[in-house]
Amino acid sequence: IRCRDGRLLGIVLVFRDITAERQAEEELRRLNDELEQRVAMRTAELQAAEIRYRTLFEELPVGVVVIDPESGLPVGFNAIACRQLGYSRGEFAQLPISDYDALGSPAETEARIEKILRQGWDNFEAKHRTRDGSLLDVLVAVKKVELAGKVMLHCLFRDITERKRAEEELAAANARLTEAQEIAQLGGWDLDLQANRVAWSRQVYHIFRLNPATHQRTQDDFVSRIHPDDLPRFEEAGRALFRSGGSVHVDYRIQVPGGDVVWVSSRAYLTADDSGKPVRLHGTVQDITDRVLAQEKLQSSERRYRQIVETATEGIWIGDRENRTTYVNRQMTAMLGWNVEEMIGKSLLDFVGEETRGVVEQDLERCRHGAIRVEDCRFRTRGGKDRWTIVSLAPMRGQEGNYAGALAMITDVTDHKQLEEQFYQAQKMESVGRLAGGVAHDFNNLLTVINGYTDLLLNRMTAGDPIHKSLTQVRQAGERAAGLTQQLLAFSRRQIIQPKVVDLNLVVGDVEKILQRLIGEDVELKICLGAELGNVMADPGQLTQVLMNLAVNARDAMPGGGHLLIETSNVQLDEHYANEHVEVTPGSYVQFTVSDSGIGMDESVQQRIFEPFFTTKKG
Question: Using CA atoms, how far apart are residues 241 and 248, in angstroms rounded to an integer?
Fold first, then answer.
């Protein structure tokens, strides 16, 4: 404290308590720091959220556009939206929705926006026009939102071009499938075993002649339309399916409205759950009526042509490119004596005689180059006999026109050949017979005179007369000559033959002793007579003469001795034997066999044994 003159009088100290203020200031600073920290954290969170939102906004696999409904301009969009339409970000920012909405006119676009604003959202398919003018199919999801106090349209554009293309391809495929099913007359069906629901395709209704709009499809109705004769087979197929699973196939008839019958081919498949319980049946039904009728017609035609081929009087042979037999008809096997199994796979040349094999081989080669050949050919039967035939060879062509084999029509002319030979032989025999008959007649007249005068002379002299012996020799020669004339007359058919019913066993028995004397002691004679032998119509004298001639020939063929066997037996000759012997009719016969152990005859001798006066004996 100072006085008036400024002198210091003393010091007054005043103390005020500011502790609360200091604490308040410190608390304020702390709160301020905490607030700044919270603001900083919130700002960071907002920045992170903005980054996440923008990242999500940009990385969404769909186009995202926020549109101002008043201007139609975008206020936000992502890169996908730009790429979908082919614009840069700068270009897209100035692009109103009416420029790329190709679904309608600008007025229609505004009407659609008004509708979204009223109801708050909408989903629809649209077409967007890209920067290059092409159209893009999109699925649009729009929602009305409020941003910064202003109404906006939040739009999601999903590119569905590939899906639409796939849908169109699927629709086209389904259309083709439906068309194919209609062409093939094939329908599909499905039966839910748990719900007992049946689904039929349109073609099933068509096959069953039913109207899908009015018909109530059920499994019982399906079964009731199966033909009664085919129902057991259908039911057995169903039982087999449930026993074994998998699938079954069965053909059967169904009765359709109007009384008609339709053949169908059905396939069914069984589906089971994880426990093995059947839950579903599905399959197909195909109208095969035309195919069945065509098969029946083809089978009928095949039977008809097979009957024609099998009953043909000509042998028919078909071979492949290597001339291996692939088919022969019944006449061919009967002609050669081989069965079908023995002929299949063998070459045609295996059945041809050596004399004509080269000709047939050449004809087969010419046939390969398109020629049609007709030749005389000699076939060899299973029994080793020859059959004369006329063979007509023609080439067979495959579907592409290439050589596939040969067809041969084989006409057996063996009988004609034999008849020709018999005719020529008969003509020759007739000429020789007429000559022999004339000579025998004249010679017999001369012998009558010679033998008559010889008998007169012999009657006038005694046995001791010097010329009696000579006249006796003359008389014997005359008798032998008379016997010769009798043979000539028999050959010329001027001798009377007297056939009658005889027993061959009796004929053989009557000449047995004579035969034994004829053949001599060096030849063993054995006679085997058949039991209950049938009778024959023949001249006993002629049979005896034949038997004696055969015995004498057998003796001469066995100069060192041997065996002579005479047999009789009943035989039954069949068609196969008759085919190889033109003079034989199938039936019951008596067989008369003379065989010996001599040297036999070669083929050249066999060809002449029936010629008159032919002999192999000298002198």
Answer: 6
Mind listing the pLDDT tens digit for each residue in 92-141?
999 988 888 887 778 888 888 888 898 998 988 888 999 998 988 998 89
Pairing of strands 523-528, 562-573: parallel
Q: Which of 603, 594, 601 is nearest to 616 (CA)?
A: 601
Residue numbers in the chain where pLDDT is lower than 50: 494
Q: What are the tokens at 412?
A: 């057996």
**DSSP 3-state assignment of 51?**
helix
Query: What element of type H or E holds 122?
Result: strand 121-129
Residue 595's Cβ-count burial label (10 Å; 0-12, 13-18, 19+) is middle
**Which amino acid appears at position 357 of this protein?**
R
How far from the centroid of its chain's Cα atoms is residue 392's Cα?
Answer: 28
Determine the 3-state secondary structure of 112 from DSSP.
Answer: helix
Answer for the pair 288, 207: CB distance below 8 angstroms, yes or no: no
Beta bridge partners of 63: 157
Q: Which phi and psi angles does 77 have, rounded to 5°?
A: -165, 160
Q: How many CB atoms lie within 10 A of CB 221?
A: 13
How far is Cα 487 from Cα 612, in angstroms, rounded to an integer?
11
Taking CA atoms, 386 is separated from 358, 408, 579, 581, in Å, by 16, 18, 12, 12
The number of helices, as runs of H, and strands, as runs of E, in the chain is: 19, 20
Please write the tens of the pLDDT for every residue from 423-441: 776 677 667 667 766 777 7
Going by C-alpha positions, the residue among 458, 451, 452, 443 that lies closest to residue 476 is 451
Between CA 175 and CA 177 the distance in angstroms is: 5
- Angle separating helix axes 414-460 and 468-491, nearest 10 degrees: 160
Distance CA 408, CA 315 (A): 8
Phi-psi region of 422 (alpha: psi -120 to 50; beta: other; left: phi over 0): alpha
- Reported as a single tens digit per residue, the pLDDT across 10-24 is 777 777 777 877 787
Report the C-alpha gap between 28 and 418 in whole angstroms: 150
Amino acid symbol at 192:
D
